Amino acid sequence: MEPTEGIITRLTPLTETSLIVHWFTEDAGLIKTVAKGARRPKSPFAGRLDLFFTCSLLWSPSRRSDLHTLREAIPSTTRSTIRQNYTATLLAAYFCRLLEHAVEGDHPEPELHDLLRRALDHVDTSGASLRALTHFEKELARILGLASPRIRAETVLREALGNLPPQRESLLATFAPDRSFPFPEHPSDRNKL
């Protein structure tokens, strides 16, 4: 059994009672584990597995596949504020998907784990912003050795990875200024209200 710390990046139903939990761990990088019985009401995993949680986990590596067995998970950080705001949830999911797209499974990437942890903590405390999105992309490009002073991080990542997760377009639309009223309000319109 392997102990480590990991951030939950995705949850996928496997059966009526089990989940596949995708983790970005400090020691093993991106891994997938099966949480058997996690969807049962009286499961030992009840309340311990949710998106963006950081947990101390114990898992058994599989010899036959890349789907390992989760033995125990104890949350240390829940980041509940993220799940209370749709834009924050979308931005956090974008960070996780972008990392999943950029790294190979079962390969340790401690600097990327730290980047994801810091990014999720920032969104949890300060909310979602275009600045957080672009900073994450810049840092990811730097860590991957793709940074260029003349080319935007988004362009470099798009060229290196083939494409970026679709959440990015929704986020950009959300962060764009409201264009529903393109003209300044006329002073006489105030009296009509």
TrEMBL record:
InterPro entries: ARFGAP/RecO, DNA_rep/recomb_RecO_N, NA-bd_OB-fold, RecO, RecO_C. It comes from the Bacteria. GO terms for cellular component: bacterial nucleoid. The keyword ATP-binding does not apply. One of its GO terms (biological process) is double-strand break repair. Keywords: DNA damage, DNA recombination, DNA repair. It holds the Pfam family RecO_C. The keyword Cytoplasm does not apply. Residues 4-74 form the DNA replication/recombination mediator RecO N-terminal domain. Belongs to the RecO family. This is DNA repair protein RecO. It comes from Haloferula luteola.
